[in-house]
Amino acid sequence: MEGPAYPHAWHLVTGWWTRVRPALVTACDGVLGILFAPSCVTCGAPIDRPLAGPVCDRCWASIPLLTPPVCHTCGEPLATWRTLEGTVARCPRCRRGRRRVSQARALGPYDGVLRGIIHAIKYDGRRSLARPLSLRMRAQCGDVLSGAAAIVPVPLHPSRTRERGFNQAADLAAHLGVPISHALIRVRATTAQADLPEGQRHRNVRAAFAATRRAEDVRGAVVVLVDDVSTTGATLEACATVLLEAGVREVRALTAARAVRRRP
Q1: pLDDT digits (tens, 9 = 90+) for 140-158
Q2: What are phi and psi of 206, to 5 degrees?
Q3: Range of the domain at 242
Q4: Please, which pLDDT band fits residue 34 given cuts at 50, 70 and 90?
Q5: CATH number of domain containing 190
Q6: How far is residue 67 CA from its own chain's centroid?
C-alpha cells in the first residue's frame, strides 16, 4: 500500500504503528530479558532494554565528558588557570610545537566505561555500539564537525581489516552526519600504538599512510579525521600530514576517547 495513493489508510496505519510500537518494544525487551538474561558488557548488570544494545543505561550515563577548558588544538583538559579571557586556550605541548591537526576533540577520557565500550566494539565485534557512541560524539563535539566537507576515517592496514572484519573508525564515522571520504590508505603495517612507549609512536606511524584518488575530492576543503582513541596524537598527526600535502586546507580530528595525561 503506497502512501500517495491511499493517504487516509496510510495515515491510519502509521498512526497505529506509532501507538503500538512502544508497547511492542517493551514486550520484546521483556521476553529477551527472560530468555537470554543479557548483561551489560561493561558492568555486568542485567540489561532492562536488550533491544537498545549491550550497554546498560546507567553505564552510558556514567561516561565522564571532556568539557572546557580544554586545549583548542589537541583537546587535552586544562587547569582553569591556564585559560585566559579573550585568548585561545592551548596546552604547553601545543604551544611549544607545530601541530598538523588544527583542532581535536574527544567525547571522554580513555578509561572506565568508555574504554570498555571501545574494547567491546574493537575486540568483541559489538559493532552495534558504534551508532550510540558516535551520536554522543556528535552531540558533545559538534563544533569540530561544523563547516567540514568530509570525514576521513583513520584506515587500518588491509591485513588488520581482514583479521578484524571491519574498521571501527569507519563504523563511528558512518553516524556523524557528514559525508565520508576514504581519502587515506594505510600502506605499511605497524605495531599497535598501545604496545609502544610514547617516544616511539611518531616513528612507528611515519610513512604509514598515503593519499588515495579520493583525496582529490577534498582539495581545498576542511576535513575531520575520525578514530576510536587518541593517545599521543601521533596517528592523527601522520594522517593530517598526508592530507595537507594532498591539498586539504584544514584537518581536524574527532575521537571517541583520548588518553588524558595524569597531573602530579
Answers
A1: 999 999 999 999 999 999 9
A2: -65, 130
A3: 58-67+99-258
A4: very low
A5: 3.40.50
A6: 16
